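Narrative progress, year one. The postdoctoral researcher (J.K.) led the effort to move from monomer predictions toward full complexes, under supervision of the PI. The following entry was the first complex the group processed end to end, covering 298 residues in total.
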Amino acid sequence: KEKHKILHQLLQNSTSPVDL
Amino acid sequence: PDAADLRALARHLYEAYLKYFPLTKVKARAILSGKTGDNVPFVIHDMKSLMEGEQFINCKQIPIQEQQRQSMAPSDALELRFFHSCQSRSAEAVREVTEFAKSIPGFIDLDLNDQVTLLKYGVIEVLIIMMAPLMNKDGTLISYGQIFMTREFLKSLRKPFSQMMEPKFEFSVKFNTLELDDSDMALFLAVIILSGDRPGLLNVKPIEQLQETVLHSLELQLKLNHPDSLQLFAKLLQKMTDLRQIVTDHVHLIQLLKKTEVDMCLHPLLQEIMKDLY
């Protein structure tokens, strides 16, 4: 899971507030 | 599923496509054919116009010290800087593709690890397919259609930057002869994402079932939308083989860049995707 942290975040946040 | 269900699925995916992808084929072709009135793209055809055009390109990811690096030849720094803005646009595009994937009925019910695997392996293929409508034989639109960058200019960059786009042009020019529209593209992208043969998938069956339904919907869509185009469905599926080779070559080029360019740092999201990919 750690290896694909950002992809996990993108998939789980419906609003995608991940700071790209 | 009956024909009405397949049409509803096609409509749903087309709507999601329009929602998440800002530059559609309709818009891109209008810009490329000069049908947008005064709104013509800025043309980058040499280093001077690249410098002038930089203000259009999203540069927010570039650390200040990178821009002011003195030890590098100015054009070398410019190439790296441009490469960095491409990376930030690609990362944003990965986010758009993720949102699109989540809108495919059944996708978010798949095992989360499988969702990650499907995206990891599918996203570069999707991005390359999505480049095709932005390209013609002479160049490509970038930066949401604000810029047209010539193929010759991309070819004139130093190695290996010069080798990055040429295979995509060759693929796109051929792909564009199939004349898919945005509603066809939406289904095709979903088919690519739902590939049950990606390495490391835990539960292949539900993925294959989802893909089969989308494939039926795509086949029907192409029959209705392109009644005179014989074997279009088969031709399109064949493109998926070419696509895998292009992605493999692309990833190898990026890996080479990482080794040879001291000053190159890869965006963390792209790093995640490309690590142990092919």
